[in-house]
Amino acid sequence: TSMIIKRVLSSAAPGAIAVAIGVAQAPDPLLGTWKLNAAKSKAPYASGTTVFEATGDTLKGTVDLVGTDGTKYHWTFAAKYDGKDHPATGSSPFGDTLAITRVNPTTIRIVSKLAGKPTIVQTIVVAPDGKTRTTTAKGTDGKGQPVDSMSFYEKQ
Hints:
- This protein is mainly beta.
- It contains one helix and ten strands.
- The N and C termini lie far apart (about 55 Å).
């Protein structure tokens, strides 16, 4: 009987490991190209596109926005979901670093800072069907202006 138990356990273990790996590596619903729907947003942007890519455990983002005043913003970042500051390069209106944490499988929080001082907290929530997401932003932008906005994006 101990031989039977060993066989059952040895054949069950690889399956359990494969399931655990599959769960641990479930695709991040944030990944892909997202287009701003300005009509459904309450934000000072006329248009925008965001591309999120994964490289290992790092989230790479490329953000392009056009403000309602015509100002163009372009910035990139590469950050882990570790809550630590990572540089944002380009013309982000929010700051020069950001820290990302995963709240749950469909929600992340981004804390932006300018010269080490917190500016904006963004919460990104991907809809259960994965086709849309919202980004709420609260705080003060890099120019000291208050921010309280919601941007609605559609996956491309």
